[in-house]
Amino acid sequence: MRRLPFFVYGTLRPGEHNHDLFLLGRTESEVPGRLSGAVLYEGPGYPYAVEEPGGVVCGELVTAVPEQYGPLLAALDRLEDYAAGDPGNVYERVARDVARPDGTRVHAWVYVAAPAVAARLRARGKLIEGGDWRLRGV
Prior knowledge:
Keywords: Transferase. The chain has 138 residues and is an alpha+beta fold.
């Protein structure tokens, strides 16, 4: 298993309701990041990243404390209703390049909408303009 950092863009961001529940005390760094090739859609209290050329999603690049990596990965997979190979997944965990503020790119785990969810969102979902969950409705 590759120990990649995580790119979070919704309720796991600092100040959002799942951040302290899942990340507090388990990370060694959290820095701003931008994921190219994806857009955000509104969900029921949380967003979905949908892979889409030309889009950009804003969030944080989170590096886990080494001894917390396995438990954190398992907790985030449960939170995101992800199980490897399960056709009923709501999200898929994929490795993608994320840009740091200095422009360097880091390979990170990102939870993106599973194909069936992404198709529904593209057909009738509400796009979050600008790709930043924190600025929705502003």
